[in-house]
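Customer escalation, tier 2.

The customer says the design service returned an amino acid string that "doesn't look like it belongs to this structure." They asked us to rerun it and document both sides in this ticket. The original structure tokens are below, unchanged.
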């Protein structure tokens, strides 16, 4: 009776038999609900959360002097003699290079779903998927910013978002390589779909703004 298990709402998964994903091709993925299968250690039901969100508020955004400072307050205190200082941590300023050689700051949020649990569990360490999605969005935003001028990127609402989503999804769909392969675990599809991508804020460097 220990073979009776339940896949909770908001989750999907697969059955594994002696460590291998079990089921007919195209029918391996489980839906929420009770499932009967061989008990552990012969069999196991591995589940993953279907829908998750990531927030890239700092990757391409300037660092304020105080955490409670608003964009307007930071703009008022901006000084052209104080250059943008790139960094890889919370102390550095994030920015992007546009098609006309200007700099721009953006904030991004996204929601993704695991649409193929078989690809996902075959090819991705579930503990790393948030970082993989963030990495895809960062790369996609770099490519997107390089396709628009500063004015276009700030004023056009839909086109840059659509390009960002397409660029990031392309990375998640294609064979990964290099560092991406190391992060994912192997070079293959992630089984993840970006269902909602938003550029929630856009601005020129604060001294220019």
């Amino acid at each position: 009776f220990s073979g009776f298990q339940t896949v909770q709402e908001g989750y999907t998964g697969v059955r594994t038999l002696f460590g291998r994903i079990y089921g007919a091709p195209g029918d391996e993925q489980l839906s929420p609900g009770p499932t009967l299968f061989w008990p552990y250690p012969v069999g196991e039901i591995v589940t993953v959360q279907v829908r998750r969100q990531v927030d890239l508020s700092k990757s391409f955004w300037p660092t304020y002097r105080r955490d409670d400072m608003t964009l307007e307050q930071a703009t008022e205190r901006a000084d052209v003699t104080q250059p943008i200082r790139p960094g890889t941590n919370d102390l550095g300023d994030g920015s992007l290079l546009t098609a006309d050689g200007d700099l721009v700051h953006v904030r991004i949020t996204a929601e993704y779903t695991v649409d193929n649990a078989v690809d996902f569990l075959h090819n991705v360490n579930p503990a790393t998927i948030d970082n993989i999605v963030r990495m895809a969005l960062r790369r996609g935003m770099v490519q997107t910013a390089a396709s628009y001028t500063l004015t276009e990127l700030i004023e056009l609402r839909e086109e840059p978002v659509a390009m960002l989503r397409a660029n990031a999804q392309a990375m998640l769909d294609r064979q990964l390589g290099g560092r991406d392969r190391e992060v994912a675990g192997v070079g293959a599809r992630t089984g993840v779909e970006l269902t909602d991508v938003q550029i929630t804020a856009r601005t020129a460097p604060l001294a220019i703004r």
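Tier 2 assessment: The sequence is consistent with the input. The longest helix spans residues 129-145. The beta strands are 4-7, 11-17, 20-22, 29-30, 33-36, 43-49, 51-60, 96-97, 103-114, 192-203. Sent an explanation to the customer and offered a walkthrough call.
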